Amino acid sequence: MTTTQEILNGNRLALAKLLTKIENNAPEGQSALIELFAHTGKAHLIGVTGAPGTGKSSLVNQLALHYRKTENKKIAILAVDPSSPFTGGAVLGDRVRMRDLSGDANVYIRSMATRGSLGGLAQSTANMTQAFDAAGFDIIIIETVGAGQSEVDIAKLAHTTLVVEAPGLGDDIQAIKAGILEIADILVVNKADRPGVENTEKALKAMLELAHPTERIFRHHGSTMRTVAPAQKASASLTWIPPIKRTVSTEGTGIAELVESIAKHAEHLRISGDWAVRDRTRLQVELEALIQSSLMNRFREDVSEKKYNEVLEKISQRNLSPYEAVKLLMNGRLK
Amino acid sequence: MADKKIRVLVAKPGLDGHDRGAKVVARALRDAGMEVIYTGLRQTPEMIAEAALQEDVDVVGLSVLSGAHMALAPRIMELLRANGQTDVKVFIGGIIPDEDLSRLKEMGVAGVYGPGASTEDIIRDIKESFAG
Ligand code: B12
Ligand SMILES: Nc1nc2c(ncn2[C@@H]2O[C@H](COP(=O)(O)OP(=O)(O)OP(=O)(O)O)[C@@H](O)[C@H]2O)c(=O)[nH]1
Ligand SMILES: [Mg+2]
Predict the structure, then answer these.
(1) Domain limits at A153?
(2) Least CA distance to B40: which residue of chain A?
(3) What's the whole-number mean pLDDT along residues A197-205?
(4) Domain co-membership, A249 together with A174
(5) Is residue A281 part of a domain?
(6) For the sheet containing A107-113, what is the strand order?
(7) Which pLDDT does position A237 carry in this prediction?
(8) What integer is the mean pLDDT of A35-55?
């Protein structure tokens, strides 16, 4: 049986091995994804991000438990933790909080390291979600690294992004950085059993009022990509204002209400047409990254190492500017 | 361009709460460039085998200081094989009496380490088990 058939049949060992090949950027991973691509596009991708220690993993555990209890859906979890910039190694500890999920054949948890990526995800995270999608997982939850403000790649990948906050993370306003707030479809105030919930919630509300309603615009390679068509934006009823939900992830309090908000958001995406727009945005990001790397490869094939180094030397000697150098290397094809 | 890393599951099977050694080893392996998945305490053999499968690890490292290793290790190895993970290497650390060493090795355990074991030796042995 081919890998593709095994994946489509739900073979977990085959899936485990494919995920590794994708993560390692191995050619077999690419060829499997080519075959599996037609089977993707069905899953609901839910991103969970927020500062370190706010309870993301505990929340993911509760979300998955709830989905398993109330809906017979297959759940995949991709948990991303940082690689050490010095050794390239990593300790991936998110599973520790997800022990309630073990023994359920309809839940699959996979940990991964960022391997040098800076946006809160690893380079191969998106492709790994495609493998889960093709394998028939209905809901794919992606936990980002403990994020500060610039780790916002998740918003380009997920349909629904949860930003998790917790009381007592120091100054309330400071803790909630604008960049990460802007990507929230739903704000979660976790650790609601702790003192200071009201303050955190108040601060979030104030920031939301400043920030919304705004159009979601993603910057990518310097160009902006609109994810909401202006015509649709005209109707106020189609504007999504991120709700704020309180949870206690150690106990499961507030999870049912949060799941309800997630369902409402998915419905909003479908009615407004945003679901398709986000799908397209994600695929555009993937396409552009592939174009870039393939152009780079073609460039390396066209231009010899020797010529490249000669030009670099001239630049270092201030005999040639980088702009002229590009013109020279691209045979005058610089635009 | 392939970018392979050694992935290791470090697990604490059974009711044993001594987790210092497991954490020391996890950190040392990370510093040696490996990706270490830490499961936390009180894992059943079934939970460990399931995690090893989902994570597609190359190595399963067990830390047992409770004396229950002769019950836990064979069960875990059996489950790994039943799941088709026949290439996975198993390393064990903790309080393991000398008389159990040969039986563990016979079962296919790749390395056994006791109190005071040097993490450099552990790293070297894991790396060597993948050479050739
Ligand atoms: C510290 C300690 C504790 C601490 C543990 C703190 C913690 N969170 O870890 C506390 C005080 C809580 C504790 C409690 C108990 N302890 Co105690 N404890 C110890 C002690 C003194 C040191 C263990 C330690 O942390 N060593 C430091 C670490 C770094 O070393 P290590 O774990 O051995 O790890 C090294 C190697 O074994 C190996 N390794 C370990 N794991 C792994 C994994 C892999 C993959 C690899 C490759 C290598 C590897 O590499 C490490 C680096 O060198 C030992 C005695 C001893 N000398 O070992 C007793 C000892 C382990 N404890 C013992 C006992 C009996 C208990 C209690 C039952 C006591 C009681 N009656 O209440 C409780 C049980 C607790 C529980 N829930 O399980 C006995 C176990 C006897 C046995 N197995 O037959 C010991 C041996 C003491 C003795 N001589 O009687 N203990
Ligand atoms: N009091 C309280 N503690 C919580 C709650 N949720 C999580 N915690 C605790 O907070 C700590 C961190 O939880 P995690 O789920 O690991 O947090 P995380 O955001 O995934 O952490 P990183 O992945 O390291 O960024 C753990 O000790 C949890 O038990 C909660 O609702 N209330
Ligand atoms: Mg976590």
Answers:
(1) 40-272
(2) A96
(3) 89
(4) yes
(5) no
(6) A107-113, A75-81, A139-143, A44-50, A160-165, A186-189, A244-246
(7) 55
(8) 95
Nearest CA in chain B to A100: B47
Terminal Cα distance for chain B, rounded: 21
Same domain, A263 and A324: no
Q: Is B95 in the pocket of ligand 1 (CB under 6 A)?
A: yes
* Residues A226, A315 within the same domain: no
pLDDT tens profile B29-42: 999 999 999 999 99
**Residue A175 sits in a domain of what CATH number?**
3.40.50.300
How far apart are the C-alpha atoms of B8 and B56, rounded to whole Å? 9
pTM: 0.91
Query: How far is it, in rounded angstroms, from Cα A114 to Cα A90?
Result: 9
Q: For residue B131, is it within any domain?
A: no
Whether ipTM > 0.90 holds is: yes
For ligand 1, whether the C-beta of B93 sits within 6 Å is: yes
Q: How many CA atoms lie within 13 A of A87 on its CB side?
A: 14
Q: What is the pLDDT of residues A283-297, one digit of tens each?
A: 998 899 889 888 888
Q: Report the half-sphere exposure of B109 (CA within 13 A, side-chain side).
A: 25
Of A12, A27, A95, the CB nearest to B39: A95
Query: Range of B20's domain?
Result: 7-112
Report CB contact under 8 Å: A91, B4: no
- For residues B47-60, average pLDDT: 98
| Residues A93, A230 within the same domain | yes
Domain count, chain B: 1
Q: Does B24 touch chain A (CB under 8 A)?
A: no
- Flag whether residue A195 sits within 8 Å of chain B, measured between CB atoms: no
Residues A267, A323 share a domain: no
Mean predicted confidence (pLDDT) in A31-47: 96
Q: How far is B17 from chain A (nearest CA, A)?
A: 14
How does A259-272 read in b/e, with b if 16+ C-beta sit within 10 Å? bebbeebbebbeeb
**Percent over 70 (pLDDT), chain B:** 97
pLDDT of residue A3: 87
